[in-house]
Every structure is written in C-alpha cells, then in structure tokens.
Amino acid sequence: MWEARLEERRRVAALLESEGQATYEPAQDRQGTLWAGEREQRRRDALTRQEGWLAQQRDEQDELRTELWLAADVSQRLRAIAGRAGISPEQVLAQLAEHARINDSGMVTVEPFLPR
C-alpha cells in the first residue's frame, strides 16, 4: 500500500514539474481523474454487490427448508403427479404449498390446480 502511495506521489510530482505548476489541480490530471473514476465505479459495483447479497440473505431467512418422509403410497402418487407434469416431486410440493389456504375454522384447504 505504501509503495502505491509513494509511486502516486512521484507521478504527481512529475506531472507538476512537467506542467510547470506549483500546486496540484485535479482537473488538470487526466490520469488521476481517470483512476479516481475507476475507483468510484469499483466502489459503486461493490456496494451494488453487497446490497444484492444482503437482499439474498433476507430472502433466505424467509425460506423454509425441511426434510419430509412420506409413506410409500403417498410418495408413489407424488412421483406420478410430478412425472406427468414434467417437474420434480419437490416442485409439486412447493406448488401445493403455494395453493394452500387456511379457512375461518382453521382447516387447511387446497383448491384443485395443475402443477406447472
């Protein structure tokens, strides 16, 4: 890190000497302005990636992951339904959960639907 700072100081000193200037004017330093713009873009990209990662973390907190053991006959029916729909049994269960509703008496109901 210190080597990069020293090299930058030398570059600015050479720029000032070649331009005959006593003070550094960032607007006159094309290379420094270009690098500053690149640094700013990298910072914005990093912030965007971090925001995406945080959103993903929030989404994962809301997800439910479970291991489910089904009786053989239920498992066979689920596999048959999934096979006819061209999707995995897990996808059928996820869609089943999407369509589940709780009525006023607390009963869970699922209206008929076609797995997609």
Structure overview:
- With 116 residues, the chain is mainly alpha-helical.
- The protein has four helices and two strands.
- The protein has helices at residues 2-19, 30-62, 72-85, 89-99; strands at residues 100-102, 108-110.
- A two-stranded antiparallel sheet has the order 1-2.
- Helix 3 (72-85) crosses helix 4.
- The chain is rod-shaped.
- The model has no long low-confidence stretch (mean pLDDT 90).
Number of strands: 2
Q: Tell me the radius of gyration.
A: 31 Å
What fraction strand?
A: 5-15%
Strand order, biggest sheet? Answer: 1-2
Q: Quick one: overall form?
A: rod-shaped
Comma- or semicolon-separated keywords:
single chain, 116 residues, mainly alpha, two-stranded antiparallel ribbon
Q: Topology, pairings included?
A:
Blueprint: H1 2-19, H2 30-62, H3 72-85, H4 89-99, E1 100-102, E2 108-110
Antiparallel strand pairs: 1-2
Helix pairs in contact: 3-4
